[in-house]
Specification:
The complex is a heterodimer of chains A (about 240) and B (about 300). Chain A has about 240 residues and is mostly helical. Chain A has nine helices and no strands. Chain A is about 80% helix and about 0% strand. In chain A, helix 3 packs antiparallel against helix 5 and helix 5 packs antiparallel against helix 6. The radius of gyration of chain A is 18 Å and the shape is globular. In chain A, about 50% of the residues are buried. In chain B, helix 2 packs across helix 3. The chains are: A mainly alpha (about 240), B alpha/beta (about 300).
């Protein structure tokens, strides 16, 4: 477990600049909370909040899709895997790292959202439920991207991830809402996007738990593929 | 004899994404590295040295053949706790040198207290104790290589696998690394040393393998390789150069080479001529000469010598 934690924390540390850049958007929300009339501008605040939520989802795919590529290209992966670290542990570290990176962002967004949206009448407990949903969605999206990145370059991995995450969304529009649960990133994202002051939505934990279970499945799949990858070969 | 590293008929082919192009990096490659020796691993660029090392470390899988690292199959995770590895191009995270060494040590499961002490120790060994709190991202290539060496040694490994460990080092640091490796060998460690610096390898290696186009071209004790000429050089004085074919006069001495079996007759001839024998030594070749000979051959020859 220790190597997994070390790899995860190291990964999150390596992503500190993208995370800090992302946090500027949260800062914008905080700034709006300070300078505007929260009650009159509450819909605008909610819009910025949702916008921030979508960004972290996109960044989770970016983090997951580029993690292995960057490590292989820089050859830092050799230093890590030359130690008593299994490839499964390495992937677990990356999944946890992506989750930590996104959780740091979501926690900050949750704090700012609780203050701004809470003051405007949005239930604070629901803000935190939305953040948990968002972290679960990021974890699953990042893991799917990571799986594709074990054998594709980041560009194609991101495309493939978008397709895999988007297909259930499309299916849910055509065949019914249940299809959205196949890979519930869309469903979890929609929970955040569809919430409003009049109807914040109900806290349904099923998609969150499903996302956790599917993360495990995609992690297993990643580990299976990654076990056969020649990691010392140039990635280009 | 327990072997630290074994390659048994290993072949490694790289294939393009569509499988249309193939490159055989290693071809039926077999060597064994004995415990407690410094094993020099030589070959021109593209000979397959790094491929062999990466296979041993489990970074890739052989197309065919098997290999063992400290008795365990290549790719075994736990055994790497007993191995130290330095890659050819050292790539490290940008953080303080001491923290970096501790990070790599912690990945090997070393406890915090021991790691703190050990990290300082290894940084001192590689001469970076004064730079322990500097960010490795701002280090020169030579300093990075030294941090790389420190992280490879942090777990006090039984086997050190070093891919070009001195390529970026200045002469002083090279001497330091040479002494370090000799001390490690004397402490019972095994060192598998891949290098282009033939003079370094010649000085410290117990055995040498030369790889050419993915095949083993030479494998022998370093001493045997260097004396493989089967000629002796005789240095004499008080005779002329005309008495022996190829004799050269230098600083009042005359030296010439004869086949080892003609040595006795040559010495008697010197004495009969009233000359004085100063020295008789087997002709030593340099690894560079052998290396050039091997790499000039159109095809690698079958392995010869001690395994």
């Amino acid at each position: 477990m220790k190597p997994v934690l070390l790899i995860a924390v190291n990964f999150a540390r390596e992503q500190r600049w993208p995370i800090l850049t992302l946090l500027l958007w949260v800062l914008l929300l905080a700034f709006l909370g300070l300078v505007t009339d929260i009650h009159r501008q509450r819909e605008d605040l909610l819009f910025v909040f949702k916008q921030d939520a979508v960004y972290v989802l996109a960044f989770s795919v970016f983090f997951g899709g580029s993690a292995i590529y960057n490590e292989r290209r820089s050859r830092r992966i050799l230093g890590v895997l030359s130690k008593a670290v299994g490839r499964q542990q390495y992937l677990s570290g990356l999944v946890l790292g992506v989750t930590i990176a996104c959780a740091v962002y979501c926690f900050t967004l949750g704090l700012t959202g609780s203050w701004t949206l809470g003051a405007a009448g949005f239930p604070i407990s629901h803000v935190w439920f939305l953040m948990v949903s968002l972290v679960a969605a990021c974890m699953l999206a990042g893991t799917v991207a990571l799986m594709f990145s074990t054998f594709l370059n980041p560009f194609f991995a991101a495309g493939a991830t978008a397709m895999v995450l988007g297909l259930p969304a499309l299916a849910s529009q055509i065949f019914g809402a249940r299809w959205g649960y196949v890979i519930p990133v869309w469903e979890l994202g929609a929970t955040v996007l569809n919430s409003s002051f009049n109807s914040p939505g109900t806290a349904s934990w099923a998609p969150v738990l499903l996302a956790g279970a599917e993360t495990l499945v995609f992690w297993l799949l990643s580990a299976r593929i990654f076990a056969h990858v020649d990691i010392a070969v140039a990635v280009e | 004899m327990r072997f630290a590293l074994e390659f048994e008929h290993i072949t490694k082919e790289y294939r393009s994404a569509l499988g249309t192009r193939r490159l055989r990096a290693l071809d039926d490659f077999s060597i064994t590295v004995e415990t407690g020796e410094i094993f020099g691993f030589l070959g021109p660029n593209g000979a397959g040295k790094s491929t062999a090392i990466h296979l041993a470390m489990g970074f890739m899988r052989p197309t065919s053949g098997v290999g063992r690292l400290l008795g365990e199959s290549f790719g075994h995770t736990g055994v790497r706790r007993r191995v130290g590895f330095l890659a050819e191009s050292v790539a490290l995270y940008h953080r303080r040198a001491e923290r970096l060494v501790r990070f790599y040590g912690a990945l090997n499961g070393i406890g915090r207290t021991r790691l703190q002490k050990r990290a300082r120790e290894v940084l001192e060994i590689v001469g970076l104790q004064d730079h322990a709190n500097r960010n490795a991202g701002k280090f020169s290539r030579g300093m990075l290589q030294r941090v790389g060496l420190a992280q490879a040694m942090v777990n006090d490994p039984e086997l050190l696998i070093l891919d070009e460990p001195t390529s970026a080092l200045d002469p002083l640091a090279r001497v330091m690394v040479r002494e370090l490796l000799l001390a490690a060998r004397n402490a019972g460690k095994t060192i598998f040393l891949s290098s282009h610096l033939l003079s370094e390898v010649e000085l410290i290696s117990d055995r040498v393998a030369m790889l050419h186009r993915g095949k083993l071209a030479r494998l022998d004790k370093t001493a045997n390789l260097l004396q493989a000429g089967e000629q002796v050089e005789i240095v004499v004085r008080s005779i002329g150069t005309k008495d022996f074919e190829g004799a050269v006069a230098r600083n009042g001495f005359v030296s010439f080479c004869v086949p080892a079996q003609s040595q006795r007759a040559a010495l008697e001839k010197v004495w009969n001529l009233g000359g004085e024998v100063v020295s008789v030594n087997p002709v030593r070749r340099s690894l560079e000469e052998i290396f050039l000979e091997v790499t000039a051959e159109p095809k690698a020859v079958a392995s010869k010598g001690i395994q």
